[in-house]
Structure prediction request, 281 residues.
Amino acid sequence: MNINFNLSISVFCALVLSLRCTAQQAPQKNYSLFHPVPKSLMREMETDRPDVTESPFTVDAGHFQIETDLVNLIREKSDTKETHTLLINQANLKIGITGSTAIQIGFQTYGRQKEKNGPSEAAEIHEGHGDLTFRIKQNLLGNDHGNFVLAILPYVKFPTSKYDENSRLEGGLIVPMLYKLPGEWKLGFQVEADRLKDKDQQAMHTEFLQSLTVSHPLLKGIEGIAETYYTYDFKEHEFSNFINAAVQMEVAKDFKLDAGLNYGIQHTAEKHYFIGASYRL
Prediction:
């Protein structure tokens, strides 16, 4: 109960800070949702995908960006259950509110989940639309200039899923960071605290995530991304480690495609295989 309360207070405070810290970035401080940044002054397109580490940059004020897993295959195995999930159009709509603040609305258009509780049990299949997520990204440093970028990203996920019958209200606070290094190298970090549902029972646990990602152009218009991260479940006192790789290709101005995998090293850690896209307007 105390952990739930403390996490709720943290998320609430971050939301309040997000709303109070608007218009701090001088180059775009006079622009807003209803007074968009001119095309000539827009920043380079930055995406939160395809790696787990979020981008600390916000969408330009008055502009929209849609990022989605076109197809995401997830394999998850615990001591008592094996789950295979197919997600179609797991999307994140991003809306620039001010020069340093953006809201994000995440939704899953279609999901199909197949669960099996042991080799002798028949598999259960559930399908339908997924959860709804609301996030606010507040850039604190480096949105328009400098080599270090920092943001906070509180979120709440609402249990609207039809394919996941155990969906619960979840939330957390994400703090992404980025260093711009010489030679077009980028080094990203992220720390995150979440309140999540348990995998095998109707209960909740607190989880911590820390990530490190490196990206660099491979060819003109194609960027390679390598990442590692871990999660720690405070309830089960359990670490899960992941090694991820992805490529992102700029197909046209403000339109990118990507593909990759998030591979859990432990046998109980999730394995993700995905193809995605991002578009800004």
